[in-house]
Sequence to fold (124 residues):
Amino acid sequence: QVRLVESGGGLVQAGDSLRLSCAASGRAVSSYAMGWFRQAPGKEREFVAAINWNRATTRYADSVKGRFTISRDNAKNTVYLQMNSLKPEDTAVYYCAASPLHTIVVPTTGYVYWGQGTQVTVSS
Fold:
C-alpha cells in the first residue's frame, strides 16, 4: 500500500510561483511512474504532468508546458511540481498519483494510488 500526501498549495496572485510536494509512504515508489492531476470545480480531473521512474522522461499538458516542471527525488520518496507564471485558470485541487508502471502514464485509469489533494488558488 502506498500513501501519498500533497503539500504546498495556497492562494497566490497571477504570475506568482508555487512548488507542490508529494510525499510517499508505505513503500518506496522509486520504480513507479508518478503524475500530477488537477480538478477545478465542475470539471473533470485532468492530466497535468508525469514523470517515469528514473526521471528520464516527462510529459506535460499543453496548458502548462513551459510553465510547470515535474521532478522527483527517489531517495526522499517525493515528487515535486514547480509551477511558475501561474494563471487564474490554474486554480484547482492538485492531486498526486502513483502508477506501478515504469513508463509515463497519462490517463487517470493508469494510476493506482492517489493523494487527497492540495488547493491552489490563483487570483487575477
